[in-house]
Input
Amino acid sequence: MSYEWSLDVLYKGLDDENYKNDLKKLEQLVNDIKAFSQNLKEGEDEEEQLLAAIDYLEQLEILSGFLKNYLELRQSVNTTDGKIVSELGNLEKMLSETSRPIAAIKKWIANVKSIENYKQKHPKIKSYSFFIDEIKKEAKHLLSDDVEDVIAKLNISAGAAWSSMQSYLTSIVEVDYRGEKVTLSQIRNLAYDKDPSVRKDAYEAELKAYEKIKDAISYSLY
Output
């Protein structure tokens, strides 16, 4: 029996032309966002710039979401796959380059004084009312663009690395369940079994499995 899900609905593999094309699109989108953030200004083009800003943020969220979800799902079933780990690392590095320009874009959006008028005028802007209102609330807490950039890069070398280690350890640990060796994912699925004795044994087996990696896991979650 195969315990891996099919991800063909996203991409058929790293050699899939759709995957390669989306990666190229994301790279171009990142460069476009960088350039756009450097040319933001108040004035006659404010309305058009707001529409463009929302469109850029929407594209980034959708495209990066497809790529990142695909790679993370691939990694979750095999954390020892070097190619996937490398691809995910490159993707995170690429996305970190958007931290500074996105911080600048959000600060600019927060300072648009006629934004309520634009909401009434443009359905697209109105549909993002909650998102825009949240940007305005969070604007006061945003750090300088340079600091936001540094934090994003530190997250790759520190936070993301610890998270990867935690995922790796939990994916390779073997669980002893009723005389068989199973994976942690399999044992967790038994939490939904109709038989209470199965749920109980699975729960106890999961707790015992954590004993094997508890020290390393505790450090990765600090």
Remarks:
- The domain at 17-157 is CATH 1.20.140.70 (Butyryl-CoA Dehydrogenase, subunit A; domain 3).
- The radius of gyration is 22 Å.
- DSSP finds eleven helices and two strands in the chain.
